[in-house]
Amino acid sequence: MSAQQRVALWAAEPDLDDEINDVDIPLAIPSYPNADMYEDPNVQLDESALLATQAQIAQQAAFAQIPDVVKRFIVHFHQAVLDNNLPEITVAYESGWNRLTEKFYSKTEWPEAEIIAPLVNDDQIFLILYRELYYRHVYSRLQPNVDDRFHSYENSCELFNYLLNSDGPVTLSLPAQWLWDIIDEFIYQFQSFALFRSRPANKTDDELAMLASEGGGQAWSSYSVLNVLYSLIQKSRANEWLTARSEGKTEEEIEEVIGEYGTRPLYRQLGYFSIIGLLRVHVLLGDFTLALKVMERVGLGLSVGQKAPFTAPTAAHVSTAYHAGVCYLMLRRVTDAARVFTGCLNWVMRARQYHTRSYQYDQINKTADRMYALLSLCHTLAPTRLDDNVMNIVRERYGDQMTRMGRGEEGLGTFEEIFLYACPKFICANGPPYDDPNALALLLNPPTPASPSSPSAPKPTTSDPTHRHLRALTAHFLSLTHVPVLRSLLKLYTSLDARKLAGFLDAGVDEEEVLSWMMVMKNAGRCVGRVNIAAVADKDEEKGGATNGTPASGSGARGSLLDGEWMSISDLNYVIDENMIHIAESTVGRRYAGWFIRNSEHAARVLDSVRALPLPVATAAGGSRPQGRDSESKGEKNAKADGAPRTGGQKVAWGGVKAA
What DSSP string runs through 573-588? Predict the structure, then answer.
């Protein structure tokens, strides 16, 4: 059967069973050796042989329970991988696998790799890829147990060892979406295992024993995960490839730089996605500076002229913007965080219609919702003018919460609730001491001090890294609790005495305390930001961030992502002369230039397209066909005289009917 027929088979919308059963596929399933051994009473079996026979019988029973449509799908999938047929692999991966999952395995596991091995002639490479899908299904749809967590790590090691330690580049070809999902799922399973390991309470004896073993200490370690990502980047020379592209080198020069691995799309895309994966891993570990450092050659689409190296999946762009925005927020660079979130959300709104049928649509929407929530925190910490379309959605979803957060300490609970919902689940690089029972028991049952008020008593702390980051950000939020009240009062005056200002506030506030609050407000009105590209970034957001409808992701030609200068983000400036406060308010007007430019260009494009279309003409009664604008007016008169619109004839662009 040809490749075109197989693609059409999986792309069809009718019932999958009917489509596949109409296709005759030769399927040779080898029989298990010694399958009838247990029927002979004269045969003496030792215990190991008996167990092997029972395992074979169990495999036969499990194989018989697999639906025929699933067996044929696996055969098709395997053949497509052998042929390196990317269109067919893409359709089977994005459509066939998900449709069969919904129909047969929405609440249970797919068949294990050992069971379906006869269908693929025991092809170990395909079985590794199949296990990658199998464990991803377990993590996303079911609840993985401790065996699943360890086995998924072993399978990931086998996959990356095959890619990195083979003799030369492998001949495997996979679509970009699958490659991104491999990196993304690898990091997600690492995060899931770290969270599972960080909670020693309520663990069974078997789980404690596995975590205390030597393999348990090495499985999903931070070192092994970082080693895989850095090895993929180094093997593919992804950073050198991005640098060569930004320098405008020719394809021949780029091939000399990146070598035999970098010229293969498989390694090039894996290396590129590994850079984005490093951003995510460093964010989860709390190293926000290093997270932005690794993205310097990739960039965030804030500069004009940056083009995407290739058509990366939508989820890769959204993940990049989300984690980069979190880095800026945790580094107190609130304006940069707001700019990254706004640019990505604008692009998601424009591209929403193109990925509504994607199987990742729900995940993209969840990440976008988290960015809206974090954007409300950014606006609370540093009120600045942002894109109206995005801010309207933020106010619609989080308007009440933003009002409560603007009241100071009263909104602290709301601030914490939004942050815990929208932030990543941070993890610890090292887990509890499972190999030391005494230290583990001390961790589970810390000694209670004799007197809680004793100065020598240890203060209660939490080992949860998410709450540690929350405490750091809420401390910044609490330092700004008096800023909204002071801001509303200062807007009413051009000069004001500190004693009079203290009288407007709560009782018991003296001048010195008011002046200290004023200094806090002055500091809150300034932050470090990428001011040298702020104007360019706005223009880039208006143009869509990149060509071909994807956010730009080029090299950071305009400087490091960590570069920045002190900038004023407040429209209220004041000077304190002894105890007198002099206020100057600078109103920032709306930027109408971009709006007029965009709409003028749109009107010009519409006018050009209208001029290129044929005009509807009508034939006068008893005469020849008129031309030009007169024909249009006569046609309108004839149409009115007829009393009904025409229903026959050639249709024109706007849906009318051209007269015969």
Answer: EEEEETTEEEEEE---
Residue at 622 is within a domain: no
11 CB-contact burial (10 Å; exposed 0-12 / middle 13-18 / buried 19+): middle
Domain-embedded: residue 584: yes
Element (H, E) at 640: helix 628-642
Tokens of 627: 């031309």
Of residues 9 and 293, which shows the higher confidence score?
293
Q: Which of 27, 187, 221 is nearest to 121 (CA)?
A: 27
Return the closest-CA partner of residue 10 out of 90, 84, 79: 90
Q: How do residues 84-125 score in pLDDT, each as one tens digit?
A: 999 999 999 988 999 999 999 999 999 999 999 999 999 999
pLDDT of the residue at 376? 92
CA nearest to 116, candidates 60, 63, 47: 63
CATH number at residue 527: 1.10.10
User: Can you tell me the distance from the alpha carbon of 121 to that of 124, in angstroms, rounded to the nearest whole number?
Assistant: 9
SS3 for 568? strand
Any residues with CB less than 8 A from the CB of 516 and at least 6 apart, and which? none
Inter-residue long-range contacts of 353-358, CB under 8 Å, 24+ positions, other chains counted: 354/549, 355/314, 358/94, 358/314
Contact criterion met (CB below 8 Å) for 650 and 658: yes
Structure tokens at 400: 């009440």
> Any bridge partners for residue 648, and if so which?
none
The answer to whether residue 568 sits within a structural domain is: yes
Q: What is the pLDDT of residue 386?
A: 81
Q: Which residue bears the tokens 């069974």?
A: 204
159's tokens: 């996959």
- How many domains does the chain contain in total? 1
Where helices occur in 286-313 by DSSP H, the ranges are 288-293
Strand partners, 566: 528
Is residue 650 classed as helix, strand or coil in its secondary structure? Answer: strand
Give whole-number Cα distances, 302 to 38, 147, 340, in Å. Answer: 70, 44, 8
The reported pLDDT for the residue numbered 287 is 92
305 in helix, strand or coil?
coil
